[in-house]
């Protein structure tokens, strides 16, 4: 083959390469090989089910400034992915979804429409040019919903956000959730530092995107008939009439989700000035109703778990160090019920100072754990947590004697009322003839969920608010809000959205590294406790020797006593060296593991490809 033929062949190859790419880009945009761990960019079965049940046409308008984002690869690539995913919705809808991709030019009518719909303006240059990457949906009755900004930072939540928008357009009438809470979950309470009204908790704000949340009074005679599900958070000494209203609502077939707590860290009551030595109550419960529902919870005990404890940084005599804080737990893996729709797709749920639920011996209901601890769990005294400031102090007295303690459970079955005599009466009221509306037992199996923790809903346990392009964007690091909304959805009979909320992996820790840390920490803690015990014993003995026992007179140390002191000092130095050795081995193991992971991630794949190419070349050479 001469030089001209080689040149022609090269040019033809380039032309074919470019042509194939152009054709593929224009015709195969919805064809992708999704290699992400959770198939984040493949339309899921839940989305297909929701799209398949649309009764009326839904129009989606994607405002995507592709040309303006040409120099911002992060936005350009993400916008194309969103467009491709929306085309899959159109393909799955059988014509019920229409997609309009609009590129708003500067000072154009399309830009005015985007701003009018509330699409976020994104500054992309110093000259004031704006870009757009947002979605607007409308239905046949002119209902309008928008996602102002499809952030690349939340790529794992794209399908969930789009499906949620379509679901709300197809189901404009929201379920009504009745809320009874002794915590400021809906905001409004002035912040003690700024004096400004505190915002609603993010978990409740998320819930309001799907449901109409109606705040109910603490003193409640009956629950409104249009309320579908009752949400009770931190009930502290509710009036008897309110307890009766809850009891009758559940017996009549109403669904309920109850959050109680032996130690609500977000409950900050004002101390009684008349009794300054008395600690305000921060626990809650429904003992009378729980007894009839077949469960109980100790009001003065908090569950701890050595394996699931969150590591916190504390200051010690040797400087800052990390220890496991037993009351704060990160529940993952088999600690989440993998057979229940509420929790089977969740990755992690964080709790703080949670209680332990138990099924009563004579219970007639079915008690199904949803969240639980592991084999290395046990009970902590609430008073010990409140008064022991050093987290390491809790570890010293901890006993793992309550494995698999239940933090959240589903309760189903037939139950009787907690008020067999009928509605509770005020002091001046007299009981008349029987109330025909009073229910002595449930009309059918009850369906409710009980959680022995309220801090699970608090922002600091599951979400960080990050500033992005002058916006506050919630960045979840746990599935706490998903757990809440999944439960409310499941109680209402809708499981399709549940399968989408947790597709992104919020927490993917190095489990081997964490295990190495725990083992080294355990060894370190045992030696540290032994050293402290020896120090205390020796100091007591030295004090007795130096003061002459009970006489209190100073004494001169004998050679034997000085020798004993020197032996102790030598033992002390030896033990400290052992402690440093444990820490050194810990760091050494972690570094070795890190080196292995780097090799696998960086070097192993190219090495395997090289070996494959060499092997293929050898096989081909032999065939020739």
Let me know the average pLDDT. 81
- Sequence stretches where pLDDT stays below 50 over 5 or more residues: 504-508, 550-554
Cα Rg:
32 Å
Kindly report the CATH topology of the largest domain. Rossmann fold
What share of residues are in beta strands? Answer: 15-25%
Count up the helices: 14
Largest sheet: 7 strands, mixed
Identify the overall geometry. globular
User: Would you report the number of β strands?
Assistant: 22
User: What is the total domain count?
Assistant: 4
CATH architecture of the largest domain, by name, is 3-Layer(aba) Sandwich
Q: Which structural class should the secondary elements be placed in?
A: alpha/beta
> According to CATH, what is the class of the largest domain?
Alpha Beta
- Report how far apart the termini are: 20 Å
Spatial strand sequence of the major β-sheet: 8-7-9-10-20-19-17
Helix content: 25-40%
- Identify the quaternary structure here: single chain
